[in-house]
Amino acid sequence: MLRRKRVSFTVLLTALLILALALPVTAAGTYYVRPGDTLFLIAQRFGTTVQALQEANGIYSDIIYPGEALSIPTGTSQVHTVQRGESLWLIARAYGTTVSALQEANGLWDTEIYAGEQLVIPGGTSPRTMAATTDAFSASPQEVDLLARMIHAEAEGEPYIGKVAVGAVILNRVRDPRFPNTISGVLFAPWEFEPVMNNRFWQITPSAEAYSAARDALAGWDPTGGALFFYNPVKSTSPWIFTRTVINQIGQHLFAI
Question: What domains does the chain contain, in order, with CATH numbers?
Fold first, then answer.
């Protein structure tokens, strides 16, 4: 009788152990496996271990498949699903991190992201409630289009941050009492922007990146630090522009006040 109780207890203990291993632990989020992923790479990306991933998902091998959903253990990095209209800068701002940190955590070489894409948020931070600031602009769809057109026309070959910078200069002028107080007023002021003067402004089709840069500038990102002018010193022919105080250089453009 005693032996039978010991056997029953052993069987029960074994069953509980198997059940505990099979049940996923509390997770920080769900990650969908991408082509080329391995448990080791995913563990490195989220600052966890292969064993923790296996325990969290009740798996007993290293085999995973693209599209498979994996629970990420708590205490590791968060996963953010990109929403329509978001950019790396807006996401970085919401989580209190940086664009470069997001790029490094996700193996991104540029700033292009897509709705539905999953991004690893480094450090396990949670999204913050962002208070409205005076830096943010409210713009109509028509104004966004105008801003994106000028960004594309003036900074087509510039890095993404350089595109945002051009948009920021335009918005800085809108804020400054020495310039017109609307986006269209700034863009179409006489003798201000070459693409308007040579009509290229209306002939181009703004890229998706130009629209994204326009939205980031409207959201308050100013990589220039408050510049009111920009120019390419190699191409500029205006003696006056060289008299302005340069406060930043991004790509091929100098930014001045």
Answer: 1-75 (3.10.350.10), 77-131 (3.10.350.10), 141-256 (1.10.10.2520)
